[in-house]
From TrEMBL:
It comes from the Bacteria. The lineage of its organism: Bacteria, Bacillati, Actinomycetota, Actinomycetes, Streptosporangiales. InterPro entries: DUF4440, NTF2-like_dom_sf, Steroid_delta5-4_isomerase. It comes from Nocardiopsis changdeensis. This is SgcJ/EcaC family oxidoreductase. Residues 19-128 form the DUF4440 domain. Gene3D superfamilies: 3.10.450.50.
Length: 139
């Protein structure tokens, strides 16, 4: 899938922001709530596909831990970045299509997701400062 880039984003920033989204995918697919939480800023705001708002890395990590040992235990997804939008030199919006996959990475049945991540440049690299996910039926 081709990623549309809008605005001035350096090749390095594009690579690093993309790596953050792929690290989020990897954390989700390996059921690692702590690796997932580490990709958010301390005071991030996240609204999940069920409409629950989570505030801060601690709350996001705790919610992920419950979900990954419960209803999302067997869930896997591929995260395709479809658009990167420069909001400022230190903020990038990423539109991501999430496709359910099996353990081999092939498409699987289930709801798809459409997420928007606002990535902020931090001393630790690009981290998710805010975001929202919407579950969709692809049919």
């Amino acid at each position: 899938m081709t990623t549309m880039t809008v605005g001035p984003i350096t090749d390095t920033d594009r690579t690093d922001a993309t790596a953050t989204v792929h690290a989020l995918q990897d954390a989700f697919n390996t059921n690692d709530p702590h690796a997932l939480g580490a990709l958010y800023t301390d005071h991030a705001s996240w609204t999940n596909a069920a409409g629950t708002r989570l505030d801060g890395r601690t709350q996001i990590t705790a919610f992920a831990e419950k979900a990954m040992t419960g209803p999302l235990t067997d869930s896997r997804a591929r995260y395709d970045i479809v658009k990167l939008l420069s909001l400022s030199p230190d903020l990038i919006a990423a539109n991501v299509h999430q496709t359910p996959v099996d353990t081999t990475g092939h498409p699987a049945p289930g709801p798809h997701g459409r997420a928007l991540y606002i990535l902020a440049r931090t001393p630790y690299g690009w981290r998710i400062a805010a975001g929202q996910n919407t579950a969709i039926d692809p049919t």
